[in-house]
Amino acid sequence: MTSQLEAPMTAPAVLPRAAQSLKFGKLEIGTPVVLAPMAGITNTAFRRLCRDFGGGLYVSEMITSRALVERTDESMRLIGHHPSETVRSIQLYGVDPKTIGEAVTMLVAEDRADHIDLNFGCPVSKVTRKGGGAALPWKQDLFAAIVQSAVKAAGDIPLTVKMRKGIDDEHLTYLDAARSARDAGVAAIALHARTASEYYSGHADWSAIAKLRETITDIPVLGNGDIWSAADAIRMVRETGVDGVVVGRGCLGRPWLFADLQAAFDEFQRDPNSNAAINPVQPSLGEVAKAFRRHTELLTEFFDTEERACRDIRKHVAWYFKGYPVGGDFRAALAQVQSLEHMDEIFADLDWDAPYPGDAAEGPRGRLGGAKQCSLPEHWLDSRQLGDEQRRILLDAEISVSGG
Known about the structure:
It is a single chain. The protein folds into 2 domains: 13-280 and 368-394, TIM Barrel (Alpha-Beta Barrel); 285-355. 37% of the residues lie in helices and 13% in strands. The protein has helices at 44-51, 65-69, 73-78, 97-109, 125-128, 140-154, 174-184, 206-215, 230-240, 257-270, 285-303, 306-313, 317-320, 328-334, 340-347, 388-394; strands spanning 22-24, 27-29, 33-35, 57-64, 89-93, 115-120, 159-164, 166-168, 171-172, 188-192, 221-224, 244-247. An 8-stranded parallel β-barrel has the order 3-4-5-6-7-10-11-12, surrounded by 7 helices. The protein has a two-stranded antiparallel ribbon with strand order 1-2. Strands 8-9 form a two-stranded antiparallel ribbon. Helix 1 crosses helix 11, helix 4 (97-109) runs parallel beside helix 6 and helix 6 (140-154) runs parallel beside helix 7.
């Protein structure tokens, strides 16, 4: 290993605990920031890396409730937490109240979670066309039954929900679903301010988040969508009045974003009117390489094999090195990295002191995609109640994909 790689990228000193915190039932989160569940991303390795930089609630990848009840090897591995993860947060996806209840009962009875979130935000066609994900809240009776079953099974464990605005602009569901979830006893509600048909295109509609905050006043409301920087997070809180933010694609390849978020929220909570500038982390190329390697080391621990960890880290290359002048050959080589030793060889010729490239490294990253018609089961929009034929279709909806 080269000498530059002997120490991981240095996280900033721990800042004072926030004056105000995010409260989910008995759970208290000092920094009102939640890492959004992302399939294939928010495993133990990435969560640990992000927690090295700042506070918040770090949620698992989405777990399909049916697979969890059946105790598949993959689902049991995904619900695991490192001992350093003092708040064990798990997101579940499901379409059947009974199965969801059984999955939550299992997590509680076996002491596997301190917080549980339900996913109603997935816009992926193979889920929505079976009535799952962001399509499900359209069926008000089914949505209510799922949330009620989960809350009852959770007992003292705080249970939250994450949703989208609705199917499309003509079929919005978020306000009805939020009232139903609040009445069922959830601890908080998070809204990704896009419809399923918008996917990840355009700009998130923060006015919908503000409307939700005005509608639901007795439990925490969190906003999600287009938070690419700590400044965006503070602006969302000021413009919408939410209690906290959910950060997804903005942290891809940028685990140090959580340092910026903690610093910004600590300042905001000391003085909500303060316009004091927070100096964001602006890593040199060498510091990015160290973080990338540390991520791979943590993935090796998670997967128990260096070869699989190197395969997994390849998808992060474009995110980590966005905007840095490393060249196509470097990116291509790293996208085929075979081992940590091989990675060190690729890094050997880097200009370690190359500075942060500024705007070129900022802004959107991850999934984008254009708006498209949301795929739905036949006659799904005919009624807000679930029919027998649609109930049979839902049995095929529990597919292990995530998003929202």
